[in-house]
Design brief:
By secondary structure, the protein is of the alpha/beta class. The chain has two domains: 184 residues, Rossmann fold, CATH 3.40.50; 180 residues, Glycogen Phosphorylase B (Rossmann fold), CATH 3.40.50.2000. It is 42% helix and 17% strand. The chain contains 15 helices and 13 strands. Helix 1 links the parallel strand 1 and strand 2. The protein is globular. The two termini are 29 Å apart.
Amino acid sequence: MGVDEPIRIGFVLHSMGVAGAEVLVAEILERGGAALAPTILCLDEVGELGRELGARGVEVVALGRRPGLDLRLAGSIFRACRQRDLELLHAHQYTPFFYSALARMRPGARFELILTEHGRHYPDAVSSRRRWINRWLLDRQAQAITGCSEFSRESLAAVDGFSRRRIELIPNGVDVERYATGERSALRRRLDLPPDRTLIVCVARLHPVKDHDTLVRAFARVAAERPETDLLLVGDGPRREALTRLASELAIDDRVSFLGVRHDVPELLQAADLFCMTSLSEAASLTVLEAMAAGLPIVVTAVGGNPELVEEGRNGLLAPRGDHEAVAGALLRLASSPEERARMGAEGRRRVESSYRLDQTVDAYLELFRRVARPAIQREAPTPPRRNK
């Protein structure tokens, strides 16, 4: 097999909606170019991003998972690999890995397997039975295991029971150039945002794990003390109606804007003054990295991998999970100090430029794919050309 032949790879995910792991897969495909011959296998539905990739010629398959433990799914993955002669599966998150590992146990399976862990459930509890299965059965089916943060890597070992010595770290990254600081007043005119308001922005799906309730309650205090400040919520999800009601009950519905899913997030971030997200659980949030790349100071809860990205007092402020008073205090501190916002924002952008660039992330995954799928080919072989954005 020649070094220039594309790796026949399948990416296995819950779906291809617009979320962190899914966006990462899309970026790997875009930047991997001719190095990969990809198929995307979705346990559930294709999703918005999957439909976009399908329109560009990427094969995206919905496997139609049934509720509960659907052992039939392992057979579907096995057949999809046989039909396409896939040599490698890259499973994102535990459930896609679980079914991929079962597929790999079938007689005649000829593909290698990588597990990448992203976010974690909250509360993060795993049964002793699952830990035993992971340790003595599923761990052996993976040729490589990676986490996108130190928190993810440690959780795979301490919570899930995978062998710690095998787990590698590949940090998330963002396209820094997309978030080059623009002229704020011009951006606000183009986006129809008020020119003279202090804008707090949050980019996250409206899901319980993101705990927007804490953010909205915190903002109620900010709104009372800083009448020139507004909150922009970018994203959609099952909590939208409840959050709209909460804003109305707190009499801040005229100060909170629900912007829905947007495709101009870089511009919205650059037009804002600070970023806040009050998640119950995170790994290495791409939206936090994007906000840092846009030069925004960050206020986040001190959960998961957030403290790896946000250094207290340097590029942002940390608050305890679910503590809306602490979040409000952090927001008020930054809302009242343009100088501190500028200093922290500049430090955050420097941090992303040095340690969290998307090209570094993609190159690390491409090297991992070659190492796992083509172990006989020397690692120093020339890299196939990538198509950059």
